Amino acid sequence: MNESLSRRNFLSRGSAAVSAVWLSAHWPSIVAAAEHAHQAAKSAAPAKFQFFSPEQAAEIDAITARVIPSDETPGAREAGVVYFIDRALTTFAVDDQQSYRDGLASLQARVHELFPDVEKFSAATPEQQDQILHSFDDQAGAGRRNFRANAKAKPFFETVRVQTIMGFLIDPDAGRGGNRDGIGWKLIGRDRDHMFQPPFGHYDKDYAGWQPNPPDAEKTKA
Amino acid sequence: MRLDTPKYKTSDEVDFVIVGSGAAGGIMAKELSTNGFRVVVLEQGPYLTEADFVHDEIKVLGEDLLTNKPKLQPNSFRKTPNERAKPQRALVYGRCVGGTSVHFTANFWRFHEIDFVERSKVGPVPGADLRDWPLTYADLEPYYTKVEWEIGVSGLAGASPFDPPRSKPYPMPPLPVKGSGVIFERAARKLGWHPFPAPMAILSQPRAGRSACVNCGFCLAFGCEVGAKSSSLAAAIPVAEKTGRCEIRPNSYVHRIETDSNGRVTGALYFDEKRNTHLQKAKAVIVCANGAETPRLLLLSANKQFPNGLANSSGVVGKYLMLNSGGVATGVFEDQLNDYKGFAVSRILHDFYELDHEKVGFHGGGGLDARFDATPVNFALNGLPPNTPRWGKGFKDAMANNFTRTMEVFGHGTSLPVEANSFSLDPDLKDAWGLPALCLTYKDHPDDIKLSNWLSQRSLELLDAAGAKQKWAPPVSEQQFAFHLLGTCRMGNDAKTSVINSDHRTHDIKNLFLCDGSSLVTSGRGQPTMTIEALSFRAADRITALAKRSEIT
User: Fold this and answer.
1) DSSP letter string, B479-532
2) Which of A173, B24, B299, B536 is 20 to 30 A from B402 in CA distance terms?
3) Could A149 and B58 be called an inter-chain contact, meaning their C-beta atoms sit closer than 8 Å?
4) A153 in a structural domain
5) Please, which residues 204-263 of chain B have a Cβ atom closer than 8 Å to chain A?
6) Is residue A213 part of a domain?
7) Do A58 and A37 fall within a single domain?
8) Residue A146 shares a structural domain with residue A176
9) Is residue A216 part of a domain?
10) Under 8 Å CB-to-CB from B328, ≥6 apart: which residues?
11) What is the mean pLDDT of chain B?
12) What ipTM does this complex have?
C-alpha cells in the first residue's frame, strides 16, 4: 500500500459484508500483516545486484524493456523488473542461473552475427533488438494452469520472458523487488486494496437484484 | 491462533487415528472428538494459519506453498496399463492442515438423486463399470444440510428448478453477484436456460467467529486470510481442537498401517519432520488421505497376510479413478467487469445435469459456472486470446485491456468409472523418503470426451448470446493431470467389486475405515467436495454408533 495505513482509511475501504465487530476484533492482525508486507516491499529493492554484473544487468534490462516496452504507459523498466530477476536468480529461480550465463553469451554472439557493427544488445536500436529476440523466440506456449516456476531446461529468452511478466505483475507487497510502486497492476487495472465491495464493475452496477426463474419452468432436458 | 490441545503419546492407544486433515479428515476429527472420542490426526503437511496466506503467486503457485511438492513427491503418468509410465507431474492436492479445502474454488453443489442411481436408470455403459451407490440421495440429505449449516455455505434455496429436495434453506444468503454472474444470468435466460446464484462454501455474513468474504481477489488456489472460505482449517479443526480430545499432528507422513496376527489394524507408522519413524497406536484407523494417497497407503501397507495391500481382496484399490470431465470457454467484453475482485463463481446453471443420451449420443451430464479465477501473473501468461503476441507492445496492450474485461464459462461434467484408470505404485520411481511414487494411469472414456466438447460448445453459445467481443475455447484433449481424485476405493455392498461398505468400513478389516474422494461410486457433475464432506458427517455418525455398540474392536 502506498498511502499510510490508518484505521479510518482501512475501514472506509472496507466491505459492507464485514461487520464492524469483526473488524475491531481482527484489526490489529490485519494492520500488522499489511504493514509487514509494506515494509518488506520497501526494503526489497536491492542497493546493488546480487547475481548480475552491471553490464549483464544492462543487457537483461534491455530485454525486459522489449518484452513489456515503455510507451505512453510505464513498462518493465519502470517496474524494476531487472531487480526482480536478479533477486529471483538467488532465490526461487536459482536453477536458472546457468541458463542466464549461457543465454547472455549466446545473446552476444547473436548480436554480432546479425549486426556486426553493434557492440551489444543494449546498444542496438529497438527494431534491431526485436529482430534479435525474434530469432530466439520459442512459439511453444504454456498451457492453461501450467504456471510453475523452475520449469527446467527452458530456452533462455522464454525464461526471461516469463520472469519479466512475473516481475511486472507479482504482488507488489510480496517483497520480491518486482512491480515497483504497483506499476504493473496499475497498467492492467488491478487495484492494490486488500478488500473490495460490490458493485465491482460495469455489468453489476445496475443489477436489479435476483429475479426467480419462471415458476412454471419445466425440467427441460437438453 | 492455535489452541492448547492435548498431546498424546504414540504408545497411548487412542480411539481413532485419522490420516489426513482435509475436507473429509477435518470433519471426521470434529465429529468424533465432539462425540467424546480421543483422536489423533496425522497430517503430512505443515500447520499453516491465516498469517501464512499471502498473495504472492510465486510462493503459492510456483513453489507449492499449500500443495504437494513435486521435487519431494514425484509422479509418473501413462495412458494405459500396458505402457511404461514416464515421470511427470500428474496431480495436485492440498498438503497442509485443512488439505485441499484450504485452496479450493468452494463451488458446493449437492449431488442430485440421479448420481446415486445412474446405473439402474441409464443401464450399462459399454467400456465402463457404472454402478449404483449403496445409499441414496435421501440417506445423504440430512448430511448435506449439516455441511451447509456447520461448515458454512452461502446460497439460495429453491432458485434452481433442477435442485433435489432439501430439508432446510441455506444458512446465509448468496455472495454478491459479480459482473461475470450478471452477464451469465442474462445470456442464459435469453437462451431459455435457468441460471441461479452459486452455492459457495464461503461466508456471505460473519458466522461462528469467522469473517465474511472481503472480496480480496486471491481465492482459488490461495488460502483465505480472513477465514471466510469454509475450509476444514477454518470451520472444522478449531471445533475439534476445542473439545480438548483431538490432537492435530502436522508434518507427519503416514507410510504404513500396521496389522496384528488377527488381521486388525493396530496403528499408523509415520515419519516426523526429521524423518524419524513413529507408530501411533489406535483402536481404529480412518484414512482420509484423498483419492490418490488413500489407495497408495493401502498398497504401501502390504504384508504377508495382505500381500496385495490392505483391504484389497477385491483387487480394486486404486482403480475406477474419475477426474471429472469439462470444457471451458473464455470471453472478452467491451466494458470492465473487474472480475478479479471477489471469489471465483457467482452464477451457475444445471439445465444439462441429466442429458438424454439418446439425443446427444453419449452418456453423462454437467453444469456451467461463470467465473474469473486468474491472478495477475497467471492471467498474463495463460489468459490472453490465442494469437496474441507473447511479448512486445501487442502483448502489453492486450493484458492492459483484457485483465478487467475477461470472464470464463466453465463446464463441469461426469467421468465414467473405467477399471484401467487408476492410481498405483510406480515400480521404479521413489519419493524423497525412498517410497514408491504415485503412478497415474488415465484415458478418458470416449463419452467423457464427447461431453467435454458438448459443454465447451454450450459455454461458447452462452458467451455468444452475451455479446462477447471475442471468445475462444481450447480444444478438448485427453486428461493427463488430476485435480479431482475420485472413486479409487469405492463404496459398495459387494466385497468383490468395492473396497468399503456404506458405513465406510473396509470389507476386509473390521477396524479400518476410509472416507474421502476415494469412496465415491460415481463422479457427480464436477463438484465433489460437498459430497465428500456430507459423506464424512454421515460416516462419523455410523462409526460413532459402531463404536458405542463395541462393534469395532
Assistant:
1) --SBSS-B-TT-B-S-TTT-SB-TTSBBSS-TTEEE-SGGG-SS-TTS--HHHH
2) A173
3) yes
4) yes
5) 204-206, 211-217, 225-226
6) no
7) no
8) yes
9) no
10) A144, B408, B409, B410, B411, B456, B459, B473, B474
11) 97
12) 0.95
* pLDDT tens sequence across B60-105: 999 999 999 999 999 999 999 999 999 999 999 999 999 999 999 9
CA-closest candidate to residue B327, choices B198, B185, B460: B460
Mutation site for B-interface testing, chosen from A197, A204, A216, A220 by largest number of B Cβ within 10 Å? A204
Per residue in A105-152, pLDDT tens?
999 999 999 999 999 999 999 999 999 999 987 544 443 333 333 344
Q: Is A24 on the interface with B (CB under 8 A)?
A: no
Q: Helices B179-190 & B446-465, crossing angle to 10 degrees?
A: 100
Total number of domains in chain A: 2
| pLDDT bracket for residue A170 (50, 70, 90) | very high
Q: Are strands B253-259 and B436-441 parallel, antiparallel or unpaired?
A: unpaired
Q: Cβ–Cβ of A149/B211 closer than 8 Å? A: no
Task: Show residues of chain A in contact with B206, CB under 8 Å.
Answer: 18-19, 21-22
Cell of B497: 467389486
Domain extent, residue A24, equals 7-42
Whether A194 and chain B come into contact, CB under 8 Å, resolves to yes
CB proximity A162 to B under 8 Å:
yes
Omega of the bond leading into B6 within 30 degrees of 0 (cis): no
B174 contacts B154 by C-beta, under 8 angstroms: yes
CA A165 to chain B, closest CA, distance in angstroms equals: 7
For the segment A9-50, what is each residue's pLDDT rounded down to a tens digit?
333 333 333 444 444 444 444 444 455 555 545 544 545 899
Predicted model pTM: 0.93
Place of cell 534490462: A61
